[in-house]
Design brief:
This protein has 320 residues and is α/β, with parallel strands linked by helices. The protein contains eleven helices and ten strands. It has one domain: TIM Barrel (Alpha-Beta Barrel). The structure holds NADP nicotinamide-adenine-dinucleotide phosphate.
């Protein structure tokens, strides 16, 4: 495993992190969840990314991860980063959603109870809230660190301007923003238009979510939609309609470059996200152990030639 420094902090994060958004709720087999978490840790993945609402049902991914941690990995707690977030709908009424101090502080208390932990390593504001002063949301992040309930804080899905504002406030409060968690992959390059420069200048690290575009940047959909794919097993955030002929054709062309590099398409997609050290960690999801093994192997070939990058850009120019 490779460990990258997160922004200008003292914290090193594994270049690949494991996210528990899908396949870790109560609807998924616990023994498979356990195997995936244990194999990830064995391969050197230190960062496990959760959120209050991961499941289904919401909260169950934290409960299941807490159970696995306590049964199998407790003696390794200090070798791991446990991350969680609040910002999306979690409970009814005005205090279970968005970015108020009331919501963030009570949500983290609930997350800690579900995972049976005293603290998390990283606590995120999961999304910006235009109806709450950003000072209030950042103040809540500062409070959780001062309470000892989180070691570091981060933000997710914040725009360039919101990131700059959040960072200035957090610096003033004495709790610098450790990390930004944006969506980033060959199919979604929005962070290249300004956010990466702001993160560099503010000394903030980044962890790219959905680096495989939920499986679209793998060879998975080359021959139709498999029964055991996310489109079939969940179908909520990745639907049949998303698997267009154009997307599959582009993925096939990218796959040709990956094969020439001696990688699978999934491996090249992860390497691409991590290229030139501009992203601290690629945050993958997985439905089975073999995917985690394959994805971590990507780190064996991290360099790209200028020609390869140019060819990838040309192929992606036909994406819509
Ligand atoms: N901050 C936010 O707002 C936000 C939003 C979304 C996600 N996230 C975080 O990002 C994490 C990752 O998101 P994601 O799961 O969408 O990431 P992803 O890595 O883009 O997609 C993961 C999915 O791709 C398939 N896959 C993975 N490796 C493969 C391989 N080698 N070959 C073939 N298929 C492979 C699997 O789907 P199959 O089921 O089809 O096998 C797997 O579940 C989440 O768990 C969460 O922690 C954060």
């Amino acid at each position: 495993m490779k460990y990258n420094r997160c922004g200008k902090s003292g914290l090193l994060i594994s270049a690949i992190s494991l996210g528990l958004w899908h396949n870790f709720g109560n609807a998924s087999v616990l023994s498979n969840q356990k195997e995936m978490v244990l194999e990830a840790f064995n391969l050197g993945i230190t960062n496990f990314d959760l959120a209050n609402n991961y499941g289904p049902p919401p909260g169950s991914a934290e409960e299941n991860f807490g159970r696995i941690l306590h049964e199998e990995l407790l003696s390794h707690r200090d070798e791991m980063l446990v991350s969680t977030k609040a910002g999306y709908y979690m409970w009814p009424g005005p205090y279970g959603d968005w970015g108020s101090r009331k919501y963030l502080l009570s949500s983290l208390d609930q997350s800690l109870k579900r995972m049976k932990l005293d603290y998390v390593d990283i606590f995120y504001s999961h999304r910006p809230d235009l109806n709450t002063p950003i000072e209030e949301t950042m103040g809540a992040l500062d409070t959780v660190v001062k309470q000892g309930k989180a070691l570091y804080v981060g933000i997710s899905n914040y725009t360039v301007e919101q990131t700059l504002e959040a960072s200035k406030i957090l610096k003033r409060l004495g709790t610098p923003c450790l990390i930004h968690q944006p969506k980033y992959s060959m199919f979604n390059r929005w962070i290249e238009a300004g956010l990466q420069d702001v993160l560099d200048s503010e000394g903030i690290g980044s962890i790219a979510f959905c680096p495989l575009a939920q499986g679209q940047l793998t060879n998975k959909y080359f021959d139709g939609i498999p029964k055991d794919s996310r489109v079939e097993t969940s179908g909520v955030f990745l639907k049949e309609d998303d698997i267009t002929e154009n997307k599959v054709n582009i993925a096939r062309k990218l796959n040709d470059i990956a094969v020439e590099r001696g990688q699978s398409l999934a491996q090249m997609a992860l390497t691409w996200v991590l290229r030139k050290n501009r992203v601290t960690s690629a945050l993958i999801g997985a439905s089975r152990v073999s995917q985690i093994i394959e994805n971590v192997e990507a780190l064996k070939k991290l360099d790209f030639s200028d020609n390869e990058l140019l060819s990838i850009d040309e192929i992606l120019a036909h994406e819509n």
